[in-house]
Amino acid sequence: xxxxxxxxxxxxxxxxxxxxxGSALAPAARAELFIDVRRGSFQPSPIAIAEFGGEGELGAxxxxxxASNLARSGYFTVLDRSRFPENPxxxxxxxxxxxxxxxxxxxxxxxxxxxxxGRLRAEFRLWDVTSGQxxxxxxxxxxxxxxxxxxxxxxxxxxxKITGVGGxxxxxxxxxxxSGPKERRxxxxxxxxQDGANVRYLTPGDNSVVSPRYSPATQDxxxxxxxxxxxxxxxxxxxxxxxxxxxxxxxxxxxxxRFSPNGRRLLIALxxxxxxxxxxxxxxxxxxxxxxxxSAIDTSPSYSPDGSQIVFESDRGGKQQIYLMGADxxxxxxxxxxDGAYSQPAWSPRGDLxxxxxxxxxGFAIGVMKPDGSGERILTEGYHNEGPTWAPNGxxxxxxxxxxxxSGGKLYMIDVTGRVNVAIPTPSYAxxxxxxxxxxxxx
Length: 443
Fold this sequence. Notes:
mainly beta, 7-stranded mixed sheet, 4-stranded antiparallel sheet, globular
């Protein structure tokens, strides 16, 4: 499960000899290819992805993944290849006048090949068609089996350069794979690439599992597991070794795990009679600190990105609402005051928003609010939506959605503007998503 090492070289530029030969490279000027996706009122940017050169079908496969990624992001419209005015060479500047006639603002060219040792070398350039500038050029070297990751890393580089927002394609999603009849579902812990490829099962399905949560800093996933006839307990699995262990030595049910930003502590909800409270566990010393002490159900804790605060769910006021407290449990205060019941808060990696599930008559909604409770916005609503988890760039979320009936739930990617709503393919029914940090290749 470890990530292959991917090396990167930057600043691929067409040399002076080519420019001197009339390559149509414009003099240095301010690049115009930029879309401000944080405003929510933008138009998707038209872009062309030229087929990468490369041996066999490798170039076409990498090209297809890049085009699919950018289209699924909702922020780009990818030009159909039948409208290309030329087949651009990676080693020459494009015919910008011809490309401007297609309406595209950006053009990506590239190539992939294996060297004599069998290692993969990939290169790409992003061109601003309007200004005639190369905006970014990079090379990557890795083992030949990592070509899909290279395609995701290139997608991140293009996405980030044009939007100014960090990438999210070179990531994975942990989830609960559900198979069988609805009343007797087999639930296995699984991980996959963010686009649904490369599904791997981490548990055999002998124990029911829910609520997986990626560590932001280590190769670990925490989750709740229930062996037959036993109390549900929080466990941790290491993705590199496959080793699993139960967290803590509690006689009652533990649930709702969430790592601290540095991965050294784990928040859990511990059942105590008819209520539950939130505890912090130091994963090194095994020390346990109680953070809430109420006669209610306190659960679903989530750290702020700097680790100084915790948002959580509690019914201490009569129904589920969202509360905030310091990382030591101090200053507990309610921040949700709208209609309905609020649950499953998740703090954005950017720190600017808290996502939540909201139940009100007629269905379940996914929304966001500022950490002080202001600025509440509903992003999607329907029969059953829940379990928001953030992409590492804080621009997208993955949620669980069940249309009702006997079918089962699926995973969907939405964004903070409310414009994006894309299904993520899974082998069967799926629930309880958790988005990983960036895998780190090329960063």
